[in-house]
């Protein structure tokens, strides 16, 4: 589950991680009020307005039809109001959103951290995620923080450092000091960075995050270490341990079909192909998708109906697949172990009769428990479907359908 920047920062504060303070708002008028409040509290003349969407690259992104960037600095309340007005309700296109962009429903008005002081300011990069190959969390960091970190990783990978953390021992003090040393900080900044890294790692583990990225990690002119931006993803499998975090989910940022599938406990992932898939079991689903590609088609989705599928969940999955205008054929591939094939067949029949006027070819392969009963149900229903016994036969029928 992805979080917005302002949500992630509130979580970090609970673990004593210093962040760039800000106020989330959803109208230009409230943005101007937020600026005034921040100015009274922190005394800074400038403030930053940041579009709140689940995507990176906001600083270089633009609102469609406008020259407005996703992150902009204002020097007075009127500036802030104008920037917020340009962002709110607009569609922001960044390198991570694709050309369709994302609708901006909320902005964060944040304090200016570039205030003058005795020392130079500096931007760093730091992230924590799971290295699945090693079975350990890894802290990735660099002296080259900011908007071009992807180019740094591509062009100068030697500037990206990594520190692995053993799960049984957790982050050790010497590791936090090593990170601060490699980033080249000294004096009070060194002490503050060690504390920052330690608390940040505790936050990562404490909320069951699967990814936590701070970019930029900022050293102020008076040697404070602050998280200016934060991207956080919570492990979906751990949400049950954090009922308070589930309330932070923003379904407007998610694919509507995936949200709908979740209501029926369907494992659904939207893809860009032309063949809709309905399968039971992740392994069989992956094999089915491979067969579709080998036959000349492209999977339009991953849909695992699971072992407890019934007619209602199958009908729901069927409807979700048909919402995709790119779908030229649907392949239903069910091996009846726990799930009964006749239940799946009944779901297909109910969906077909309920939706009506289905023009795409439907290929059905049902094997296993009650497969004979399922075949009889479909034959008596009068549905215009094509049956297959072998997966290779089903794939061949799919190939003919998409290449017709």
UniProtKB/TrEMBL annotation:
Keyword terms: ATP-binding, Ligase, Magnesium, Metal-binding, Nucleotide-binding, Tricarboxylic acid cycle
Physiological role: Succinyl-CoA synthetase functions in the citric acid cycle (TCA), coupling the hydrolysis of succinyl-CoA to the synthesis of either ATP or GTP and thus represents the only step of substrate-level phosphorylation in the TCA. The beta subunit provides nucleotide specificity of the enzyme and binds the substrate succinate, while the binding sites for coenzyme A and phosphate are found in the alpha subunit.
UniProt xrefs under Pfam families: ATP-grasp_2, Ligase_CoA
Family per record: Belongs to the succinate/malate CoA ligase beta subunit family.
Catalyzed chemical reaction(s): GTP + succinate + CoA = succinyl-CoA + GDP + phosphate; succinate + ATP + CoA = succinyl-CoA + ADP + phosphate
Enzyme class: ligase
Name of this protein: Succinate--CoA ligase [ADP-forming] subunit beta
Species annotation: Chitinophaga costaii
Start and end residues of each ATP-grasp fold succinyl-CoA synthetase-type domain: 2-218
Manner of cofactor binding, per the entry note: Binds 1 Mg(2+) ion per subunit.
Coiled coil (UniProt feature): none
PROSITE patterns recorded: SUCCINYL_COA_LIG_3 (PS01217)
Cofactor(s), names only, from the UniProt record: Mg(2+)
Residues at which ATP binds: 50, 57-59, 113, 123
